[in-house]
Write a structure and sequence with these properties.
The protein is mostly helical. The chain is built from four helices and no strands.
Amino acid sequence: MSNYTDPLLWSDGKSAQVQAQRFFIEHNFHEAKSECDMADYQVRRWDAWHHHMALVMLATLFLVRQKTLGRRQWPMLSINDLVTALAHMLPRRQLTVEELAEIIHKRHQRRLDAKQFSARRKRLWNNLTE
């Protein structure tokens, strides 16, 4: 157990209580990582990381509160159940054909740019090594 310095200060009951709290805290972090994308971030600056973590914590808080409120009606309710329900219940805007074509065009342009950049870099490297 971490931070367990003086066994005379803690009773066995207190040790068990702290260990039980630790389980629930780690369980909540695991759910935040898997359901709220806590671990899925690509940021370049520390403030962007803080923004991401703040949004993840807000989403996790919302889901935990909904889970607590729904426990009477559904005793086995999980955060995964809530995320699945929200994904099916929240409305999604349908893309128009023009919007879809624009998305595909941008993807193709990025791929073409990447291929051209790679070819230029390869030519430059070949010129330097000759």
